[in-house]
Amino acid sequence: MLALCLMHRAGATELSYPEILLDDVKHVATSPARWEETEWHTAGWASLAVVGTALVVDRPLRDEMRRHSGNNSFITQVERFGSQYAAGVVGGFYVVGAFTGNNTAVQVAQDGIAASLIASGIVTPTIKLLAGRSRPRADEDIYNFKPFSDANSSFPSGHTTEAFALASVIANHYDETWVTCASYSIAGLVGLARTYHQAHFASDVVAGAMIGTLVGKSVVSYNASLRNGKLALLPDFSRGLIGVRIAGRF
User: Fold this and answer.
1) Which of 161, 160, 134, 139 is closest to 149 using CA atoms?
2) Contacts of 218 (CB under 8 A, 6+ apart)
């Protein structure tokens, strides 16, 4: 059965946050179905960049990091922006926004949670499982892939995905050069830290950075269109129903 569903979003309070999260997940998951030639070309070049990094950079960077690895407190602290510190950053934006009435800060927190959930909670773990790449510290071949192996989960980097997802959300909400530079610089250092600790190859980091950035930008753009009252068309699937859902605010 084909149907056309109209979802009315008159205000942010009409949908619970779990519903907003589900909406974002559906939007990102179905994005390839809406890609045009430009987006497919971009995806192709991104894939080539990851493969090129794997062929040219992975081995020499791994060997270099092995020669210099050790206990570096700065790198260890920066690395946590791809895990527990990321949650603190999101929470900080929400608290500041809620107490000061700053809608942008609240939106950063909301979009940051959605982007993190999708990028580092769904997309990256799925690819990790399918790829099954061994980590640099495993002393195995750099191209050792064992799909559906719980022990092998190097590709892509989850910490880097998380860091870049949050960085892209922040950078796309604040039109300030220093904010963009600071956000992506910290995210880049997270990726560097993962190679320093021999947890990931360079191509793992590049792939994670691309996933996090693309998902973060997509979530911010989609939610901004809803907040501004624009319409968005989404495929809608349910039992016995295949249709198109129009999401917007009226």
Assistant:
1) 134
2) 27, 28, 31
Residue 3 pLDDT greater than 60, yes or no: no
Burial (0-12, 13-18, 19+ Cβ within 10 Å), 7: middle
> Residue 227 pLDDT more than 70?
yes
The helix or strand, by DSSP H or E, that contains position 75, with its residue range, turns out to be helix 73-79
pTM of the predicted protein model: 0.84
Does pLDDT of 246 surpass 80? no
**Contact residues for 107 (Cβ-Cβ < 8 A; gap 6+):** 97, 173, 223, 227
Count the Cβ atoms, other than its own, within 10 Å of residue 27. 23
Cβ pair 187, 81 in contact under 8 A: yes
> What's the Cα-to-Cα distance from 7 to each of 33, 55, 56, 218, rounded to whole Å?
20, 47, 49, 20
| Angle, vertex CA 197, rays to CA 195 and CA 201, nearest 5 | 30
Task: Write the secondary structure of 156-224 as one string of H (helix), E (strand) and C (coil).
Answer: CCHHHHHHHHHHHHHHHHCCCHHHHHHHHHHHHHHHHHHHHCCCCCHHHHHHHHHHHHHHHHHHHHHHH
Q: Which of 62, 109, 140 is nearest to 219 (CA)?
A: 109
- Eight-state DSSP code of residue 146: -
The Cα 168–Cα 237 span in angstroms is: 29
| Cβ contacts of 213 within 8 Å, gap of 6 or more | 164, 165, 167, 168
Of residues 229 and 195, the one with the higher pLDDT is 195
Closest CA to 28 of 220, 211, 218, 243: 218
> Domains of the chain (ranges plus CATH)?
16-31+46-229 (1.10.606.20)
